[in-house]
Amino acid sequence: MRYVSTRGQAPVLSFGEAMLTGLARDGGLYVPETIPTLTAAEIADLAGLSYEEVAFRVMKPFTGDTFTDEELQGAIERAYAGFGHPARAPLVQLAPNHFLLELFHGPTLAFKDFAMQVIGQLFQIELAKQGRKVTIVGATSGDTGSAAIEAFRGLDNVDVFILFPHGRVSEVQRRQMTTPIEENVHALALDGDFDDCQARLKDMFNDFAFRDEVGLAGVNSINFARVLAQIVYYFTSAVALGAPQRKISFTVPTGNFGDIFAGFLAKQMGLPVERLVIATNQNDILDRCIKGGDYTRHGVKPSMSPSMDIEISSNFERALYFAYGRDGDAITALMTELKEAGSFTVSPNAIGALREIYDSGRIGEGRTLEIIGRTLKETGELICPHTAVAVGVAEDALDRDPATPMVTLATAHPAKFPDAVNEATGIRPALPPRMKDLFERPERVTRVANDLAALEALVRGERRK
Ligand SMILES: Cc1ncc(COP(=O)(O)O)c(C=O)c1O
Ligand SMILES: N[C@@H](CCOP(=O)(O)O)C(=O)O
Questions:
Q1: What is the pLDDT of residues 178-194, one digit of tens each?
Q2: Which active-site residues does the annotation give?
């Protein structure tokens, strides 16, 4: 299995190399050269297996010979052992044809744990084999950061620096990043928004001298291994609802497009996915693009679903790459236009290809609150604001296609966003007992300017040599 860049100009790599490389050296994102498929019989055979067994069967064909079967199985077992639900990703019924896929039973209470816990294990195996140390720099709008810290805290051969937008994450999210005591963990509050954090991260990858000097590695969904581990729950949930005999649709609260792109890969692998519905909050660039063909930045407006406050949606590049028939030059041109002019127009063929796969919708702030309140009243489920955005978009999609079962991804625990949930319901959801002293723990955070040279100097100075 070989991995190629969406911009077509970077070295072709194995899975292991792509995992440790992060951003491709031409600025693109790695994708598999071919997408492995499962037959209908192989998908049917997943019924009744544990989450871990399904994960192994789905992930193995992508990893080539980087890991032995025993290594991959062991990594998966260890990754999910600490989850707070035996099913790992349980389904809850909201309405006759509407199901919620709860992805918040991992250690940091967000769907990011599903992939981050696995790649934490895979990094350790690969770094030990190669006798290497790496410096991970991550950008977060709230959830990736704590999941990365949880997966890599205390490791001797990894330093972790997390850039988050100052004042734009929830207090629980911030404290999850600023209270770990391990000296390899560095929380950096950047003066800017998430797009600035991600842009500086990509700048660091594009500064080859810096990248090579510090052994830069990435665990954002830039890293294909992140997306890979997120394919698994599309299979477990669809099979539980009758796939491969029955088609299933998914609605995904979307920001950086990693989670829904994993759904695209599941579909390409043979899972009968009817529609993948992109759910956006008031930062609706993806909804506008799918509907009108224009990807135009308007400026990020902070919302009550802060993890989706994103306008430069990193993995949309991967979606465009497939929509443009794997044309790296076309993608390079679009990404250059976005950087220089703040917008691009998708070609008629490519927008047609995207609309074959994706549907989309947008939910504003008022409706988000209404949905949190109504969902609790009608179903007894307390949901986070990101999930509420997706529930609203899914309800609209179900009105258009009531016959196909809809799975809505519940991406974070409501206790991560107590203020919004309280405003909608009058309930402040409690954190699990293991986190009950989160608000008493001392915080350790460095405020940083949105300045590449200053950030690089900080990482150089703080990482352990
Ligand atoms: C709670 C939550 N929901 C949804 C998203 C959006 O997911 P993605 O960036 O993969 O589109 C994020 C951030 O990634 C998140 O943290
Ligand atoms: N919403 C994310 C943003 C980063 O996304 P990633 O999937 O690329 O890591 C977050 O919570 O940080």
A1: 999 999 999 999 999 99
A2: 112
Cα pseudo-dihedral 225, 5, 295, 337, rounded to 10: 140
What average pLDDT does range 308-333 have in this prediction? Answer: 98
Give the pTM: 0.98
Helices 418-425/365-379 angle, 10° precision: 70
DSSP string over 22-52: -S-TTS--EEESS-----HHHHHTTTT--HH
As for how many domains the chain has, the answer is: 1
pLDDT digits (tens, 9 = 90+) for 420-433: 999 999 999 999 99
pLDDT category at 465 given cuts 50, 70, 90 is confident
Residue 182 located in a structural domain: no
Q: Which atom of ligand 2 is nearest to the CA of 222?
A: 8
Which ligand 2 atom minimizes the distance to the CA of 145?
12
Q: Is residue 176 part of a domain?
A: no
Token representation of residue 38: 């499962």
Is residue 278 within 8 A of residue 360, CB to CB? The reply is: yes
Ligand 2 centroid to residue 229 C-alpha, Å:
14
Mean pLDDT of 18-24: 96
Question: Could you report the per-residue pLDDT of 129-161, keeping only the tens digit for each?
Answer: 999 999 999 999 999 999 999 999 999 999 999
Distance separating alpha carbons of residues 119 and 113, to the nearest angstrom: 10
Residue 319 lies in a domain: yes
Domain with 295, as residue range(s), is 91-107+224-425
Protein residue whose Cα sits closest to atom 12 of ligand 2: 140
Q: Domain with 363 in it: what CATH number?
A: 3.40.50.1100
Does a structural domain hold residue 398?
A: yes
173 alpha carbon – ligand 2 mean position (Å): 12
Expressed in angstroms and rounded, the spacing between residue 111 Cα and the centre of ligand 1 is 8
pLDDT band at 277 (very low <50, low <70, confident <90, very high): very high
Please tell me the number of Cα atoms within 13 Å of 243 on its side-chain side.
Answer: 29
pLDDT tens per residue across span 390-406:
999 999 999 999 999 99
Measured from the Cα of 110, ligand 2's closest atom is 11
List, edge to edge, every strand of the sheet that includes 406-410. 91-95, 98-102, 406-410, 248-253, 273-280, 358-362
Ligand 2 pocket, CB under 6 A:
140-145, 220-221, 255-256, 258, 307, 314
**The pLDDT value given to residue 363:** 98
Question: Best of 111, 112, 114, 260 to mutate for ligand 2, by most ligand atoms within 8 A of CB?
Answer: 112
